[in-house]
Amino acid sequence: MFDRTAGSHVVELLKQWNVDHIYGMPGDSINELMEELRKVDIRFIQIRHEETGALAASAYSKLTGHIGVCLSIAGPGAIHLQNGLYDAKKDKTPVLAIVGQVTSTSVGTDTFQELKLESMFEDVSVYNRRLQNAEQLPDMLNQAIRAAYAEKGPAVLVVSDDLFSTKIKREKEMTSPQYSVPHIRAAEEDLKEALKLLETAKKPVILAGKGAQDAPGEVLAFSERLKAPIIASLPAKGLIPDDHPNNLGQLGQLGTEPAEQAMKQADLVILAGTAYPYREYLPDKAPAIQIDVEPRVIGKYYPATVGVVGELGPALAWLTSQLGEKDPGFLNQFQEKRSAWHDKLRADIDKQTDMLQPQQVLGEIQHIMERDAVVSLDVGSITIWTAKYLQLTGHKLVLSSWLGTMGCGLPGALAAKLAYPNRQAIVIAGDGGFSMGMQDFVTAVKYELPMIIVVFNNQKLQLIEDEQKMAGNKPTNVDLANIDFAAFAIACGGEGYTVKTRAELQDALSKAKASKQPVVIDAYVEDISAVL
């Protein structure tokens, strides 16, 4: 018979679920759980703001496919988790939030820091429960984690702190820490209907999304057999190597001219593992094949002619094996356009200017970026510059794609170094995005997580200014009070460099690459638009 605290069951089950670290901040409604965590080898990453913890948990899940875990107290801590949990929800990745609550005898009395947490988390979560008694805790933890994996989103478990220290007796375990990944194979009749469209298409275009993360080889083989150019959604950047001659880059506001032109001319669109939402960048009337494991996204943003529900890799492998020879004329045309476009990008990077420009900074980052580096990309005009000018081949990219939350860059790098300690982590951020959560740079210092953070400093919310101009309005309230980010980094115990010339940037990046500490490079860049 097992006679021990419910909290000890929690930490043991987390270990069985292969959880090796948790992001959080100690506090009075999780102190009993903290006591149990103290006794085991699950690493507790003490962050300075709960939003950082939730964003890091989400990023860790995106990078590894394993559940990310964050922890907070009731009241204010739980509120701070929301942004990171919504990021996980929108990007469909599993996260567990264990949220403390006031003592079980005080719930409902409107005591200090009490909130109705179940209501607050209802919209963001795929699983959202508050424990009534300690006996439920092990089984509900298993349910929460399974739900997060199965439904690809945040699971929230609200627990009064006294329940963690309550002893429970169990003669046998009622549930197990197991999740079996389903394998979904497409129906052959759907594949045959798709094949008919592929055989008659003269100008097919593949739009690949993050569903290609387990099938980049199949996407490339399919492209080469179909003689079709590939366009990658931003979350899929790097999954299909940017240096592959069939890859035209991204589409839309942050895309390339060849990608836009190819999509306009397409007589068939293959949506491969993406529910691309920007209808204005897709053809007006072209038929479409959409392949996805989620039936509910088929035809969601574009009227699919044929929907194929199944895993992308096996579906594309079958179609590739059945396809006959195709005319390469359309593909050859856009390979030439792609080559000319890349020549233009290189000229932009190499040109000499009085002041550093964003694309030049990205060109220098490219030079020091290791082959297996993890790039954590923040949100803003920097997203557009990076999509266009940074070439990813064998690298990992993590970002907030559907929520687009500024301040995600640093948490993404924290997660990257915990997931892959021996891989280079690079943050690309604007001064607006970095300053939203810069306090947790000291977390990287504390846990000795070396990373290179390049802050593109133009003292402005550049993308917001561009949007205001495009709406026909006069830009307002977009100028930022400047911060000495290099001095801040040094004050936190890391390294910091201020750069205003290409030579200074090259020197700083070289030092940062060799450093064993977190580094901030405060790069002053010219105030130029990424979109206008």
Automatic annotation (TrEMBL):
Top-level taxon: Bacteria
The EC number(s) this enzyme carries: 1.2.3.3
Domain Thiamine pyrophosphate enzyme central: residue ranges: 191-317
Pfam families, per database record: TPP_enzyme_C, TPP_enzyme_M, TPP_enzyme_N
Gene3D superfamilies on file: 3.40.50.970, TPP-binding domain (3.40.50.1220)
SUPFAM superfamilies, per the entry: DHS-like NAD/FAD-binding domain (SSF52467), Thiamin diphosphate-binding fold (THDP-binding) (SSF52518)
Stretches assigned to the Thiamine pyrophosphate enzyme N-terminal TPP-binding domain: 5-117
Keywords: Oxidoreductase, Pyruvate, Thiamine pyrophosphate
Record-annotated Thiamine pyrophosphate enzyme TPP-binding domain positions: 378-522
Molecular-function annotations in GO: pyruvate oxidase activity
NCBIfam families: PRK08611.1 (NF006377)
Family note: Belongs to the TPP enzyme family.
Name of this chain's protein: Pyruvate oxidase
Organism of this sequence: Planococcus dechangensis
